[in-house]
Amino acid sequence: MEIMIVAGEPSGDLHASHVVNALKTQHSEISFYGMGGDMMEAAGVTLNIHIRDSAVMGIAEAIAVLPKFLKKRALLKEHIREKPPDTLILIDFAEFNMPLAKYANSQGVPVIYYIPPKAWAWRPGRAKKLAKYANHIASIFPFETEFYRNAGASAQFVGHPLVDFAKTDLTPTQAREKLGLQTDTHAIGLMPGSRRSEIQRILPTIFKAAANISTALPNTEWILPLAPGISDDLINQCKNGIEGIPKIKIIQGDNYIAMRAATLMLVTSGTATLETACLGTPMIILYRTSWLNWQIINALTPLEHSGLPNLIAGKRIVPELLQDDLTPDTLTNHTIDLLSNPEKLEEQRTSLNKVYKQLGEPGTAERTAQLVLELATSAHNSE
Is 60 exceeded by the pLDDT of residue 338? Predict the structure, then answer.
């Protein structure tokens, strides 16, 4: 059997690699090809297209690279047409993958969409379209599953992939000892994002707040788990002209241990907020993008909350400082308020634990692989 798999960003590359490994365990005689990154390639996928330059932040940036994306999608369509796979697996990356799902469907190629578009957040019409194009939707949120089923799709809740690897066996005390932190301080973790543009917009504000907080609460330590591909040089550039920044310990390769060690995390909105929730660490969610992106988001997104933990909880359990609300003063005040009130931290931990329990049991990749295998086997045997 041959399976085509398409992921467009590093997170999709990671999740795709787990599904490929699970499929190879369940069925050894499958070949894989498509679009992805180093992790998919290491798992045994023949890459027709590498995603080195695919990651973008926001609609405005996506428009700028549109010609390049159209060329990539045309190449993938050519592969589907000339060498139809037994199944096409699409992972996240909705603006690129939705038209690909439509094309594969028109060519009679079965489609399974893992980590589907967040149509429940904006542009809900995409759910009905995907119901027409995809044979199965492997959903990662319970409420998302119901949303797609109501739109007429064959959707199954497979659990969230973070449950399988966003964890550590260390206690907070053990995590602090491993990172060389004191046990009697407030440890504040900084996660300003994984893309250069968002780090440049958010990290200087964090540093200004850190200078204020360290003056008001001198019994604090600071850690910054470095996202893959982000250099120390970029972090240092964001410090330019800012006085009073406390000593910040850069953590590489031990991000989940850093999250467990932290008393409080200051996290850019995105997957990292859910990773922090899985570790049970209180947080403040931050976000800032370009003016144009923000106008588009406000026009298209009818949601009361931005952060994933709040969306899953259905209420504001974590503070959100977005766009103009993200200033050094507001971040300073929210941080000091939480650190000065242990009961608020504990209340948030309890709420985050409830969110974690809604993400399903371990084994997401294996359950997704089973769905793929059933679809691919049926298609292969019917040829």
Answer: yes
CA dihedral for 88, 135, 368, 6, sign (positive or negative): positive
Q: Which residues pair with 32 in a beta bridge?
A: 3, 45
Across 278-360, where does the E strand assignment appear?
283-287, 320-322
pLDDT recorded at residue 368: 97
Contacts of 304 (CB under 8 A, 6+ apart): 316
Using the 8-state DSSP alphabet, how is residue 141 labeled?
Answer: S
Please provide the size of the chain in residues: 383
Q: What is the pTM of this model?
A: 0.84
Dihedral Cα 54, 56, 58, 61, nearest 10 deg: -90
The pLDDT tens digits of the residues spanning 324-334 come to 999 999 999 99
Question: Which H/E stretch holds residue 88?
Answer: strand 87-91
What DSSP string runs through 123-139?
-THHHHHHHHH-SEEEE
Gap between the Cα atoms of 380 and 383, Å rounded: 6
| Euclidean distance between CA atoms 212 and 335, whole angstroms | 10
Report residue 251 as tokens.
């953590």
Give the residue among 211, 221, 218 at the shortest CA–CA distance from 244.
211
Mean pLDDT over 369-374 rounds to 95
Query: 152-187: b or e for each residue (b if 16 or more CB lie within 10 Å)?
Result: ebebbbbbbbbbbebbbebebeebbeebebeeeebb
Residues facing residue 88 across a β-bridge? 4, 111
CA distance 240 to 137: 46
pLDDT at 55: 55
Q: Per residue in 12-51, is it b (16+ CB within 10 Å) or e — as a string?
A: bbbbbbbbbbbbeeeeeebebbbbbbebbeebebebbbeb
Please state, in angstroms and rounded to a whole number, the distance separating the CA atoms of residues 292 and 134.
32
